[in-house]
Design a protein that fits this description.
Length: 319
């Protein structure tokens, strides 16, 4: 029973290591997509347009983004991916001051900032503080929407990654269970990564930005994943070639196989469908696990390896 429990723990460590590496790779790809598409910047811009009731970007939102305080937060031609609340509030106050909109007769009192203008009653410091608090609260709400969108994108990336490397949870678990050498190699590599990751000021371990090529090499060299001839044959060539009858004169010959027509027997069809259901389910399970994030699986690996190390202590037999 103790040996069986040890194997279960080793398989769990191997799966956690796969999820950890895939989560790291997915985060790299997601960051690349976000940088290329200015995803954060566009999300922030859309959020501010909603806040300032300027969907066409022709009024207050346009003036805020034209303010030097905001333009300096990004490269020319790029949208800022983060705006401090103080900078946003000062840009708003600058705009109101330039347009002479701090007086109660101003049209600004009819806009989304009218409650703050009325409460401030011309006190610029009070107005700025109120806008900063409002901006922080709004960013918490919009930030939650952004995180949910990122989670969905990470899930999609994780599924395509799992399919690309053929990282089915079920197949990897089977390989780890049946091959002790692979279990030992995966555990050694996982322990090395956990051991060499530096700690931060709070005592926790934080991973540095990984290299996608290095991650892919580590997965291919350590984990029992990848497309093999047998897996390709099982999923994409599930047809059983049966001898196709060939006509020779007035006789029918069933020995010719050069023109064999691929056919599926009922048993083969059921097995092929089952194989695909299992494969897709394994990829989905891998994607769901990887979408939990690299830090989650890194912490899980550390705890599991600690339990594994404690279980390796030799026991003495009493005579």
């Amino acid at each position: 029973m103790a040996m069986w429990n040890s194997i279960v723990l080793d398989v769990g460590i191997g799966l956690a290591f796969m999820y950890f590496l895939l989560a790291l790779a997915c985060s790299v790809i997601q960051e690349l997509i976000a940088n290329v598409t200015s995803w954060r910047g566009r999300h922030l811009l859309n959020s501010i347009k909603v806040m300032l009731n300027d969907p066409a970007m022709t009024g207050l939102a346009k003036r805020v983004y034209s303010n030097p305080r905001i333009r300096s937060l990004s490269l020319p031609g790029k949208l800022p991916s983060y705006i401090p609340s103080a900078a946003f509030a000062k840009a708003i106050v600058d705009t109101f001051s330039e347009q002479g909109m701090l007086q109660q007769s101003s049209p600004a009192f009819q806009g989304p900032l009218s409650p703050f203008l009325r409460d401030a009653a011309g006190d610029v410091d009070k107005l700025q503080a109120s806008i900063e608090t409002w901006f922080d609260n709004a960013m918490d709400r919009f930030g939650g929407w952004y995180k949910r969108n990122v989670q969905l994108v990470l899930l999609a990336i994780a599924f395509f990654m799992a399919a690309a490397v053929n990282g089915s949870t079920f197949e990897v678990a089977r390989q780890l269970w049946s091959q002790p050498m692979i279990r030992a190699a995966v555990e050694s590599q996982a322990a090395n990564i956990v051991r060499t990751t530096p700690t931060d000021a709070t005592g926790g371990q934080q991973m540095a930005s990984p290299d996608l090529e290095q991650l892919t090499a580590t997965m291919n060299e350590t984990l029992p994943i990848g497309w093999t001839a047998s897996s390709y044959q099982r999923l994409f060539r599930g047809l059983e070639a049966e001898a196709a009858p060939t006509v020779s004169g007035s006789e029918v010959s069933v020995t010719g196989t050069s023109e064999a027509a691929p056919r599926l027997t009922p048993l083969t069809t059921k097995q092929w469908i089952f194989d695909w259901i299992e494969q897709l389910s394994g990829w989905v399970l891998t994607a769901l696990a990887a979408s939990l994030g690299a830090q989650f699986w890194f912490d899980t690996l550390g705890e599991a390896l600690g339990i594994r190390a404690a279980g390796n202590r030799p026991t003495s037999k009493s005579r």
